[in-house]
Amino acid sequence: MDHLHAYWRMEYVTQEKPPEARHPFVDLPKVGDDKATLIVSRERHSFILMNRYPYNPGHLLILPYREVPDLEDLTEEERSCFLSATIKAKRLLQEALKPAGFNIGLNLGSAAGAGVPKHLHMHVVPRWTGDTNFMPVLGSTRVLSQSLEAMWEHLNSQCEKLD
What we know:
Elements: H1 8-14, H2 24-31, H3 34-37, E1 39-42, E2 46-50, E3 60-64, H4 76-97, E4 101-106, E5 122-127, H5 134-138, H6 148-162
Antiparallel strand pairs: 1-2, 2-3, 3-5, 4-5
Helix pairs in contact: 4-6
């Protein structure tokens, strides 16, 4: 192979960095177009969102609607919904993609790798045996086998079956 193309990366690389006053995870649910915003499921206090810049195909984020930086800042009801949405996201990916395993976790604070440290979010990343190869290690490149739009369609149809 002479060339590897990841056209979607240019949008990420060239986008304006959001000002501190911007709150992307609070704004996304207000758009009202779940397909355009990649929202897979809306729960009472949290929502499930496809990661626009995923580590693996199907990488989901679980977010409370309210902007909070830490688990401790959630109410009991919000915590319960947040964990239930995390379990739902895992079940959804298990049904839709049949991965061999998962990475599920939080990055709390900038030093821990949180890209949006003001808004708590859980990562649910499906994993397959052998999915890590030389591309991310040597090429700093991820290989995604399906477009975000096609993945959203697939996950959305499977999510409806879970409810």
